[in-house]
Design brief:
The strands form 2 sheets. This protein has a 6-stranded mixed β-sheet, sandwiched between helices. The radius of gyration is 21 Å and the shape is globular. Helix 3 (131-147) crosses helix 4. The chain has helices spanning 13-22, 31-41, 131-147, 174-195, 208-215, 246-267, 276-288, 305-330, 332-337; strands spanning 64-70, 76-83, 97-104, 156-160, 202-206, 216-217, 221-222, 272-273. With 343 residues, the protein is of the alpha/beta class. Helix 4 (174-195) links the parallel strand 4 and strand 5.
């Protein structure tokens, strides 16, 4: 039987914050606030029922599927994971399977008319950002990945939460408002599908800073497989970024996350790619190594940070659920595995 979570009341604030980070929960506030947050949140699964089971057909049923979306207009990336699981208290068997991994352009950049046009113009056509343009894209995108998903739709959809300001600036950028508008449309479409009984699942907004902090810690501490700390689960190999302004830290953080996913793909043991995701994985590695810049069909590969972010977001959700169960099962022992003392 799992230990009662009442043992949390005897922990220090730093230990409570370690557990909160490991479970993907906010780690700010006073000690009573942190304790209450853990006591309220730990009993709640991040996986929508029915309980996930095996990644292959068996007596346990079908795998749990997660659709992770990294928001964007010209660079929206998504990753669909089939997650193996077992009963509480039993070690998970098998690796999460990446069934789909891609990036799409909701609004393609404008192109200039060719020189063969009847009436050539020096001005590029204006890109359209109206709600009437975005709304059909929102429905078409989710219809393909939810209503017509194969072999079955995701039970949990993770949508990256958008900020209103960048780099602490006072101005709200127009591009940010456009992405926020499309984000709201995705939520509205999914809620409509739920209300009409066309999809049964849950939608979660995920703070990108919490995902980044989980995989790439403060000061550039790279955490391999994500437990919130410790060597055993591959969270060693720590690196320290040089101090600099916000832009430099953001750039370094992106590079760290791209490298982390590249390491997963090269070394194995974290995720397994199947189907079309395999081709994307090959292109990801080749571009990172200075190889080809295009996919097999000739499409330009583009930047890698969006692809890395959507996979890290989905895998963080998986690890947060695993850690939640382990905290309830192991109690103080979970802290000890992370190298934190619980005195």
């Amino acid at each position: 039987m799992a230990p009662s979570p009442t043992w949390l009341t005897s922990l220090k604030s730093t230990q409570l914050k370690t557990l909160l980070t490991a479970a993907g929960l906010p780690s700010t506030g006073t000690k009573p606030v942190l304790t209450t947050r853990l006591l309220d949140s730990l009993p709640i699964s991040k996986f929508h029922a029915p309980e996930p089971s095996s990644p292959t057909p068996s007596k346990h049923g079908k795998p749990h599927r997660i659709l992770s979306i990294d928001m964007g207009i010209r660079n929206l990336a998504y990753c669909q994971l089939a997650v193996p699981s077992t009963e509480p208290g039993v070690k998970r068997k098998g690796l999460p399977v990446v069934e789909a991994w891609d990036r799409i352009a909701i609004a393609k950049p404008p192109t200039r008319p060719s020189s063969t046009d009847a009436k050539p113009s020096n001005a590029a056509p204006k890109e359209t950002f109206s709600p009437s343009t975005y709304a059909p894209h929102a429905y078409t995108f989710l219809s393909a990945l939810v209503l017509h998903a194969s072999p079955r739709p995701p039970s949990d959809i993770l949508i990256e939460r958008q900020r209103f300001r960048s780099m602490g600036g006072s101005a709200v950028q127009e591009w940010t408002l456009r992405v926020n508008m499309f984000e709201a449309m995705l939520w509205a479409v999914l809620e409509t599908l739920r209300a009409e009984g066309r999809w049964e699942g849950r939608v979660w907004g995920v703070e990108p800073g919490r995902v980044g902090g989980f995989w790439v810690g403060d000061g550039g501490e790279v955490k391999g497989k994500g437990e919130g700390g410790g060597e055993e689960e591959g969270t060693g190999g720590r690196k320290r970024r040089k101090k600099g302004d916000g832009a430099r830290k953001v750039k370094q953080g992106k590079e760290d996350k791209i490298k982390l996913v590249r390491g997963w793909l090269q070394e194995g043991g974290v995720v397994r790619l199947e189907g079309g995701a395999k081709e994307m994985g090959e292109a990801y590695l080749k571009k990172g190594d200075g190889g080809r810049k295009r996919m097999g069909d000739g499409e330009k590969m583009g930047k890698l940070d969006d692809l890395a972010d959507c996979m890290l977001q989905g895998m963080a959700w998986v690890k947060w659920e695993e850690n939640r169960r382990r905290i309830l099962q192991e109690g103080v022992g979970f802290l000890e595995r992370l190298g934190a003392t619980a005195k």
